[in-house]
Specification:
The structure is a homodimer.
Chain A: H1 2-8, H2 12-20, H3 27-40, H4 46-53, E1 58-63, H5 69-84, E2 88-93, H6 98-110, E3 115-119, H7 125-133, E4 138-141, E5 151-155, H8 157-170, E6 175-180, H9 186-202, E7 207-212, H10 218-229, E8 239-242, H11 245-258, E9 268-273, E10 286-289, H12 292-309, E11 317-320, E12 323-325
Parallel strand pairs in A: 1-2, 1-3, 3-4, 4-5, 5-11, 6-7, 6-8, 8-9, 9-10
Antiparallel strand pairs in A: 10-12
The structure holds a DNA duplex.
Chain lengths: 349, 349
DNA sequence: TAAGTGGATTGATGCGCTTCAATCGGTCGG
DNA sequence: CCGACCGATTGAAGCGCATCAATCCACTTA
């Protein structure tokens, strides 16, 4: 910077002003300085910058699973919103590894980012408490915080489960089954509650079987599908709620393509999340949509609110409502392929 | 830090040593300092740290499209490799926006990251030149650099196209069509060359039609599918190479599910990239696999090499070979659903 | 002509840390 | 008992920048 100042025949203070408060500098001088900057290839040192100012204009976003399109959507929404308020969004993928997650939280903490968005897959209250105790703001995504510890953006996951079950009930299915795993993952727990509520509400005419898939990935889905396919037709549920799109697609694949069980005629299937793959699958998947983009945007809003209001901030939780997207795997009518109200994912707001 | 020093009854130098060179400090003192650190909730300031050292241990990775699973795979591989050498990987998504890409390149440049991994969708030589001129290292992913300007990790995209075409030819298809768009995107250009080479090699018995889809996303694929479906059966190609999985799946959907054209019987389809969705689609897609994880790992290796060897570094290009994954949309035999050699994506190294 | 005015510019200060030469205190050999 | 030696510890210097009180300069007003 001194070099630039020398080259332009000004002081370092003026160079700094050109960079940060152009209005304070006369146009001619500013031009001279800018010329020197580009001639010398000067790059201002962000470390020194944020050392002085005590902050940066970056927001860190820690994602548990970057392979999941819901998380990608959240990142997308957050990115847009962050940009709009002049912040950069830095992404970090923990691949569901809590050690890595703590690493990244600490990294962002040490980097004095403006704030952190965290979309975890496990309880992370320890990490949150740690960096919050240093005065760093955190907004939790798709995971309820311990009450009063931070802001959060959630989807009404109970309603996700409810919508899935309700849709099947409304379309005339009576022998329902709910396939899930990882009840330690909060959204999964919530969805189960919603499923049960809908079934109870329907009265004794509707039965619910709960199937533990053991895991949320495709192989587990295949296994569940095979188990189901081996059953006597009379023992087969006629409506399947599946906790995850990925799992649902895997199950459908076994049922439909491998075992020749007709979906949705014999078994209707509803998934949750409305992932990228949902609409493109062999049997397009009826799924409860999670508004990922909006969640990301809301999270940034909450974060910036908190940063701006300082002491008098009150933590808030934004709960967004899910929406059912009806496709072929569980049409509106009881049997057969109903009208496709397939809303393109690309049109998502 | 002074506070910690006071609390522990030592000097700041000792506190710093506890954090950075524990061996230099007596165990008793170290313990006392650590206790003070956690009691006071001290977090060392990364900005000051890297101001002194002039570097960080973070690597920035700029991705053109985080929605594309190839890019996600590259990020995954890079993350693993970066961790192994004690570096943090920070991700940035440009959503194909060159302005944003430049923003992030500059941000990483100003942050004095160890180096930058860039997976662009357009020529980015200006940005690369800019930050390289500041001495910052860049490795380009899936895009050829201007010769001699930086290291890069590529896939032999010409061979991608060749493998796709060759597979169709070998399975007896003779009226081929190649669907692509965005020839300004280098990998696309390369694939076309490979397709043409394979067709020429096959001699006059095989014809090639080149179809411009106008874009690479699902809606464009639907349009192409509809156009094809309207043709007289005799005018229909019997083998389709499609530049992208997403496009391929969309085309198959139109052809197969909507228009009732049998895939692969009437038209066999081969995609490129072997995305997440490839294996799960209605008609599982035969695709040429791009080794994303390995690309990410190699990129980190090249970057760390370059950082380590300083002046005497010579730029290198690593070209990885693609591999054909045969699924139902274009089985090995000429007609009908061949044996599924569906390699689970999850098993990818 | 002197005092006043305000925009442009200066440069010393300090942000929080790492480093390293200097110092301290204790131990060992002679 | 003295000097040499060594590990542990100290604390000042400086990393590159933003800030802001102080200064400068050109111009206006009385």
């Amino acid at each position: 910077m001194q070099d630039v100042a020398d080259a332009a025949g000004v002081s370092v203070g003026t160079v700094s002003n050109v960079l940060n408060h152009p209005a304070k500098v006369s146009p001619a001088t500013a031009e001279r300085v800018r010329e020197a900057i580009s001639r010398l290839g000067f790059v201002r040192n962000d470390a020194a910058r944020s050392l002085v100012s005590g902050s940066t204009n970056s927001i860190g976003m820690v994602l548990a699973d970057i392979e999941n399109s819901l998380f990608i959507d959240m990142a997308h929404g957050a990115q847009d919103a962050a940009r709009a308020v002049g912040q950069n969004l830095l992404l970090a993928n923990t691949a569901c590894d809590m050690t890595l997650q703590d690493n990244y939280l600490d990294l962002f903490d040490e980097s004095r980012v403006t704030g952190v968005l965290l979309a975890p897959m496990e309880d992370s209250s320890a990490g949150i408490a740690r960096i919050r105790s240093h005065g760093r703001q955190v907004v939790l995504l798709n995971y309820s915080p311990k009450p009063g510890t931070c802001c959060s953006v959630l989807v009404n996951n109970e309603h996700v489960g409810y919508l899935a079950a309700r849709h099947l009930i409304d379309s005339g299915r009576t022998r329902l089954a709910y396939v899930a795993a990882h009840d330690d993952y909060q959204p999964v727990r919530d969805r189960r509650r919603g499923v049960r509520a809908a079934v109870e509400e329907a009265g004794p005419g509707v039965t619910l079987e709960e199937i533990d898939s053991g895991g949320l990935t495709t192989p587990y889905g295949h296994a569940v599908g095979q188990d189901l396919a081996r059953r006597a037709p009379a023992d087969l549920p006629d409506g399947l709620m599946v906790v995850t799109d990925e799992l649902a697609n895997a199950i459908i694949h076994e049922l439909h393509a491998v075992a020749g069980i007709r979906v949705p005629d014999q078994v209707a299937v509803v998934g949750c999340e409305n992932n990228r793959a949902a609409g493109a699958a062999a049997v397009p998947l009826t799924a409860v949509d999670m508004p990922g983009r909006m969640m990301g945007r809301e999270a940034i809003r909450l974060l910036m609110d908190e940063v701006a209001s300082g002491e008098q901030h009150r933590h808030a939780t934004v709960v967004l409502e899910p929406e059912l997207i009806v496709r072929a795997s569980a049409p509106r009518s009881g049997v057969g392929v109903g009208t496709s109200s397939d809303r393109s994912r690309g049109a998502q707001s």
